[in-house]
Structure formats: structure tokens, C-alpha cells
Amino acid sequence: MFNFFALNPFIFNMFNPFMPFGNYWQNYGNLRYTNQNSIFTHANYNNNTNHSTYNEAKGELLANTILNGLPTNRDPQNPLCARYVKNGIVKSGLGRYELGNGEDSQYMLRRNLNFKEIKVKGSELENLKKGCAVVYDAFDSDGVNTIGKDGHVMVSLGDGRFVSDKIEDASEIVKSDNAHVFMVV
Asked: Is 79:57 a contact under the CB 8 Å cutoff?
């Protein structure tokens, strides 16, 4: 008997009660699931605090690529942090562009084998090495500053400053212990 569902995983998952529709993407027949609310984490996710695998060349390349691509006429009412960070990752050859806002960048970086998630205290964010990505959840706060409804993503310049669609000094960033930090490996 012909099994149509075995040949087309898209059709199969439309009827799969355990897979909410729309939380997956298909890559040339290799079905991968991405569900931001899932209790299952991606196989490459690694919350290891070992900083010994930092890749200085990739970090330098990423930070400089984003810095060189800064907009000249930035609209403060329309922040585009995720666009500039993700474009920098693509132009540096460190990954592909995926849709999503600043907060969504954490899921993209967890899947990217060029990055490794590490745990960093909010007070230590300004000491990150060049090229480390910092992602904030929507409405994250340090008690003084609050992130907006789309979250925020930025990349460390290694000197206490960060870059996305603008340059931010250490005094301007949210020093939250809940920030997601990704080191270039």
C-alpha cells in the first residue's frame, strides 16, 4: 500500500497532534523542529561556562563586519538590531539569515554551530571578548533600564561597547543576569 505520509513529512506533521502547526522548518527533506516553548532543547545547545573554545579570529571578523555595516541614517523609532546582527553573521560567513526579532535571535544562535551559549552575570557583560552576542528577552530589566517588546541583540566590541544598529556603551546596556550570551567558537 502507498504511504503518502512517509514520503511527505510536511503532510504528516499537519496531522501530528504533538507538533503545533507552524513550529517547524524544512531543510531539503531533513525535518527539524523549532519550538520556542518546547521542553526539548536543540541537540547543539550547550550551556557550558568553559571559555577556552573562544575563536578570536571569528570574533574579530563578526564585530568588525557589523561595525562597518552600521546605518548612517538610523531611525530611533524603528530599531533594527536583529537585522544588523544577523546580516553581520551572514556577511562574516558564520551562519544564515533567519527571520525574527531581537529576542528570537537566541534560538537562531543556539542552532548555529559557530556559537556556544555561556552563562555570564549582568555585571560582567561589559568584559565580554570581541564578537560575543548578547540577547535580551522582551521586557527584560535591570531595575533601571528596560528592554522593549521585541527584545534586543547586540555584539561585543571587546572594549565595553556593543554594536547592532548603533553603538552602545557599557553604561547604556541592561546589566541583566537573564541575558543570553553566545561566544564565537
From this structure: no
**Looking at the DSSP assignment, which residues form a beta bridge with residue 3?**
none
User: How far, CA to CA in Å, does 73 sit from each of 45, 69, 160?
Assistant: 36, 12, 24
The three-point CA angle 133-78-76 to 5° equals 85
Decide if 173 contacts 152 (C-beta within 8 A).
no
Distances 109 to 7, 85, 156, 170 between C-alpha atoms, Å: 30, 11, 15, 22
Cβ contact 132:100 at 8 Å = no
Section 164-168 average pLDDT: 95
Choose from 32-36, 48-52, 74-78, 88-92 the range with maximum mean pLDDT.
88-92
